[in-house]
Design goal:
- The structure is a homodimer of 168-residue chains.
- The first copy, chain A, is α+β, with helices and mostly antiparallel strands.
- The first copy, chain A, has one domain (25-161): Nuclear Transport Factor 2, Chain: A, CATH 3.10.450.
- The first copy, chain A, contains four helices and six strands, in the order αααββαββββ.
- The longest helix of chain A is centred in the first third of the chain and has 31 residues, at 25-55.
- Chains A and B meet through helix 1, strand 3, strand 4, strand 5 and strand 6 of A and helix 1, strand 3, strand 4, strand 5 and strand 6 of B.
């Protein structure tokens, strides 16, 4: 009988250690802060690799950052749906860049909860100016990332400029 | 002794029912689908109320949808930081609308996980055209919402047009 009591106590103990209590609001916010910090490191690396692909003129590599059903929302044209169409959109964008242009991204804020992250930041493009100098256009973006099979992929990507586009 | 066994069994049973197992990937996706569906209902109601405030020319009511530290990212101008500055931005936007303009929003997709939601959709404005008829401008948006003290508030809001803005 005593042995049975002990085994039941062990079951209770095992149950207590194997399971987790529902998360409190404080625990949730602490966890989300950790996940956001961790996602920011991952997404800053993604941004650097995307910039490298952009400045190398590699539309295939750029499209690989997007989920198969991603939506690209460029300014002054309709949305582009799906990775294959996005690859075509990237080719068009690269073809429209003046030679010598240098693209850059700056991540400003990342909020993540589990497999969803929102990344807000700034973009800029430095290009040869009309007088032999250089000019910069810049703007802002918001990107929705989902972690799919362990990898962060862009699901929605939208940006616009800080000023109307200058005549080229 | 028998009473003691029973009380330990009851403790084990109570522990089993009070705690929760770590979520499996399948359970997480099912939960997120439910939360996204539920957030979509809430955010469609928010969108309808925002449209009502916009078409009533009520900048105060529009600003109330934003978190105190929200970031508004309108096209062709710099980002606007904070609810007070956003209220001013809304006043400017309302002042720039031709009389008789009608604004509309359409939510296309909502992805939520706990207190974070991303809302992607379309906007349109119908306004009097140059020939006495009406013209429509339209575009797309991405909005990051956080549920703060039980209420969904906009944290980041960006949009752009499907075509360059027509001359007014």
């Amino acid at each position: 009988m005593f042995a049975r009591v002990t085994s039941i106590s062990l079951i209770a103990l095992a149950t207590l250690t194997a399971c987790q209590q529902p998360e409190t609001a404080e625990q949730m916010h602490a966890r989300m802060q950790m996940e956001s910090d961790s996602a920011r490191v991952a997404l800053e690396a993604k941004a650097a690799a995307f910039v490298e692909a952009f400045n190398a003129g590699n539309a295939d590599a750029m499209a690989a950052f997007y989920a198969p059903d991603a939506v690209l929302m460029p300014p002054d044209m309709p949305a582009v749906m799906g990775r294959d169409a996005i690859r075509g959109g990237m080719e068009g964008m690269l073809a429209g860049m003046p030679p010598g242009s240098v693209f850059a991204l700056r991540v400003l804020d990342v909020a993540a909860n589990g497999p969803i992250a929102v990344d807000r930041g700034e973009w800029s493009t430095t290009m040869p100016g009309p007088d032999g100098g250089s000019m910069e256009i810049r703007g802002k973006y918001l990107v929705e990332w989902h972690r799919i099979d362990g990898e962060w992929l862009i699901v929605s990507d939208i940006w616009n400029g800080d000023a109307p586009m200058p005549p080229m």
